Fold this sequence. Notes:
Two copies of one chain form a homodimer.
Chain A: H1 3-10, H2 17-26, E1 28-32, E2 37-39, E3 47-53, E4 55-61, E5 67-74, E6 78-79, H3 82-87, E7 93-97, E8 101-107, H4 108-117, H5 120-145, H6 148-158, H7 160-165, H8 168-175, H9 179-191
Antiparallel strand pairs in A: 1-8, 2-7, 3-6, 3-8, 4-5, 4-7
Helix pairs in contact in A: 2-4, 8-9
The structure holds a DNA duplex.
Amino acid sequence: MYNLLLQSIEKKVPITQAAKIEVQNAFTLKKLRKRDYLLRDGDICNEMYFVKNGCMILYTLDDGGNEHVTQFAVEGWWVGDMYSYLSGLPSNMFLEALEPAEVLCIKREDREMLLTTVPILERYFRILLENNFVAIHRRVANLISKGAEDKYLDFVKLYPQFALRVPQKYIASYLGITPETLSRIRVQSAER
Amino acid sequence: MYNLLLQSIEKKVPITQAAKIEVQNAFTLKKLRKRDYLLRDGDICNEMYFVKNGCMILYTLDDGGNEHVTQFAVEGWWVGDMYSYLSGLPSNMFLEALEPAEVLCIKREDREMLLTTVPILERYFRILLENNFVAIHRRVANLISKGAEDKYLDFVKLYPQFALRVPQKYIASYLGITPETLSRIRVQSAER
DNA sequence: CATCCGGCTTGATCTAAATCAATTGCATTT
DNA sequence: AAATGCAATTGATTTAGATCAAGCCGGATG
Lengths: 192, 192
């Protein structure tokens, strides 16, 4: 049950057997069906989630009711509204399962506690966040500098798995373009 | 000389006198004049920089020679090309002083060393990166969901200091719009 | 003091992508 | 197998913002 999480940790830092037990005790499992929500606009995000399997999206809704996907999360990824999680203030996001999913949940206080009892995890999260910083920075660079087609091509190159797994409209949203535009881009790219 | 850095650390984690010495020994000071570079396309980013004073921008150049600002950094901020810094691979970015500036530099190996000798800094960087994650995530949400005017208004609300301090063209670039568009937005907003 | 240059503004035009709208194709449910 | 409901496609039109081009202003430089 905790295999994937412990692997994720061990890939980055050494961890003792005793610490593994501590880790396991800090998490609970949630099983989700397609379209279940872990978080809705207005909720406070009191937990962060480690995806064991399935696929989640984190998104906002604008005034016109359009979804804007800020994050995907599949097996081995962390997800949640970090803003709300850290501040304790209400989120303006939705966290939804695109597929049946299982996630490991850790509450704010439990994580804080765990970080003091197993301090090597500070290093784990630090490394995780650094890698994440690189990825999100690349995304920003693409968003401010590239046109629709180039953004899509970079996305496919970076996450070939997603391009197949996730409905196109979510990818379009993630790239900041419309589903219609993405559809047209795909036929044009294929023609060449 | 190390005041601002030590304050930045102490705001987030407790640190002993001995550890402060260790920190100071790990950094060197660089003084920059306006338009000096700390990093150019093709360089490997072997250091990260903590800004003591002045203002830096991190940007890419596209095929058309247009700058795309991915980051600002003023007093108390960290900056550098994290991708190149972590991987040791060449950067495709420029890091330039917009004003005369002083930065504290820490080499890759020295930071790794420091993190093992002063492990509380793992926590410092972890917290820093979490806060940063929230900010950059907000930026992404704005980039994929908002029009030019709303992006600008959010920027001014979040960083009122910058709006005055930095030439508009860099702000435009940071927002993913042209200087012309930003100029027009500003007069329109003022009219109302 | 003059001039030079970079940054900002303003206007005219163009274009990539959004929007609006209809149709089709799948997959899930009944 | 019919029916329902999304997702994707395709076409027509609109629009936000880019691009191109000139002029202008203010601070740095000889």
